[in-house]
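Design request, tokens follow.
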């Protein structure tokens, strides 16, 4: 008997996740049978839940905050990029019973930029990354992978940026948080990976005067879609790319692995995620 494939997303809390609407939309678009279910799971239960789901017909799950690092201790096989980042967001439950962990956040980040700013040349100039948390690790790994010559990184807590420099190497230059505005002059790309600008959090305020008009500014925050940073960058004449596309694109490889078809990131997918 062929079982209907099940997938889902595990986090705590999980009610805010946009992934269920997105995957259900793609299942419908492709006329596929399947379900994608949000699961609110506490850290203490994570391992038991992950060992049980394959027996219930789950083909894999997405992992979100706060379990992305923890899941690395539970997975049997881990891709090199997930190891480098130190976190996973996608699990495949293999037929041999093994749990395979991957991280598609960096892929989502780059694909979103390619779609939103097709003229951006990664190899032409340094990129400025604001923040040095978990999200920044995926962004830095992806930028190095596409050949960015230098990454100027600035974080309120400087030691976290220095840790990234230790882990990712010489192409990273750490800049004091108070000096963050100064690093933008040379950058062809500015990325906010901090949580500043998220609904309920203060805005990220960096002086954009030095920024070249040809620069691309992107924010990982997607609620609101237009953060203060993006509005300021738009007013300065720069190309801006919002963070929703990263969420959509990171979901593509997982959907394809679980359900066998490569989904489209288009306006209908964006609308579904915002529903
Ligand atoms: P994530 O996995 O989403 O990156 P995180 O690891 O908690 O989450 O990192 C949050 C990022 O937002 C960090 O760069 C954090 O700076 P610190 O390392 O100094 O904590 C940044 N951040 C959060 N609140 C901030 C604030 N009020 N001012 C400046 N940076 C802030």
């Amino acid at each position: 008997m062929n079982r209907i494939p099940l997938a889902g997303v595990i986090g705590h809390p999980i009610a805010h996740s946009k992934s269920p609407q997105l995957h259900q939309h793609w299942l419908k678009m492709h006329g596929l049978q399947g379900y994608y279910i949000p699961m609110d799971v506490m850290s203490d239960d994570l391992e038991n839940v992950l060992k049980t789901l394959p027996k219930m017909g789950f083909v894999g799950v997405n992992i979100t905050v706060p379990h992305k690092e923890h899941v690395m201790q539970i997975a049997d096989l881990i891709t090199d990029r997930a190891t480098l980042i130190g976190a996973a967001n996608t699990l495949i439950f293999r037929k041999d019973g093994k749990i395979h962990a991957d991280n598609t956040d960096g892929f989502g980040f780059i694909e979103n930029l390619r779609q939103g700013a097709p003229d951006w040349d990664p190899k032409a100039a340094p990129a400025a990354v604001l923040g040095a948390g978990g999200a920044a690790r995926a962004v830095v790994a992806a930028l190095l992978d596409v050949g960015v010559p230098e990454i100027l990184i600035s974080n309120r807590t400087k030691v976290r940026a220095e840790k990234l420099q230790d882990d990712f190497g010489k192409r990273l230059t750490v800049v004091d948080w108070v000096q963050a505005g100064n690093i933008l002059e040379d950058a062809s790309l500015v990325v906010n990976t901090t949580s500043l600008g998220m609904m309920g959090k203060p805005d990220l305020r960096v002086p954009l005067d030095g920024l070249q008009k040809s620069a691309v500014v992107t924010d990982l925050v997607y609620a609101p879609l237009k953060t203060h940073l993006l509005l300021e960058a738009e007013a300065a004449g720069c190309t801006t790319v919002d963070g929703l596309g990263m969420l959509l694109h990171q979901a593509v490889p997982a959907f394809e692995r679980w359900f066998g078809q490569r989904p489209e990131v288009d306006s209908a997918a964006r609308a579904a995620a915002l529903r």
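Comment from the thread starter after seeing the answer: thanks! The chain has two domains: 6-103, 106-245.
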